[in-house]
């Protein structure tokens, strides 16, 4: 399962993330582009879908005063995020294809950095994006 895969990788959660091919500098450049293209404003409340170790929300909080909720299927990466990133954000273990517990219009923006490709079913993909 996806959760098992990322639980196996959770030991790689370190201050620069779990990426083995994208540097933290590259990651930050991509996030700057996501903010610009998504027109994410300072103070926005965001959902980080597939948040992993929590570094994206950590960066957005520091650089843009954005706060939010990170969800991920890996309980180990969520545990890392809770212990090692800013307390301005929340991190929850959740199945990103089942978001009925979140009320409509809760978030100003939803972002996903390298996670949305795990949604294989087209109908579910469209539901998640909605």
UniProtKB/TrEMBL annotation:
<protein>
    <recommendedName>
        <fullName>Methyltransferase domain-containing protein</fullName>
    </recommendedName>
</protein>
<dbReference type="Pfam" id="PF13649">
    <property type="entry name" value="Methyltransf_25"/>
</dbReference>
<feature type="domain" description="Methyltransferase">
    <location>
        <begin position="46"/>
        <end position="120"/>
    </location>
</feature>
<dbReference type="InterPro" id="IPR029063">
    <property type="entry name" value="SAM-dependent_MTases_sf"/>
</dbReference>
<dbReference type="InterPro" id="IPR041698">
    <property type="entry name" value="Methyltransf_25"/>
</dbReference>
């Amino acid at each position: 399962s996806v959760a098992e895969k990322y639980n196996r990788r959770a030991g790689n959660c370190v201050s620069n993330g779990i990426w083995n091919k994208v540097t933290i500098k590259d990651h930050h450049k991509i996030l700057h582009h996501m903010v610009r293209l998504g027109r994410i404003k300072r103070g926005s409340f965001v959902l980080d879908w597939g948040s992993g170790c929590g570094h994206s929300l950590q960066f957005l909080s520091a650089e843009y005063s954005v706060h939010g909720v990170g969800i991920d299927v890996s309980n180990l990466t969520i545990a890392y995020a809770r212990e090692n990133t800013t307390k301005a954000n929340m991190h929850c273990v959740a199945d990103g294809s089942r978001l009925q517990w979140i009320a409509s219009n809760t978030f100003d923006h939803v972002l996903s950095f390298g996670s949305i490709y795990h949604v294989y079913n087209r109908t579910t993909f469209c539901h998640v994006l909605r």
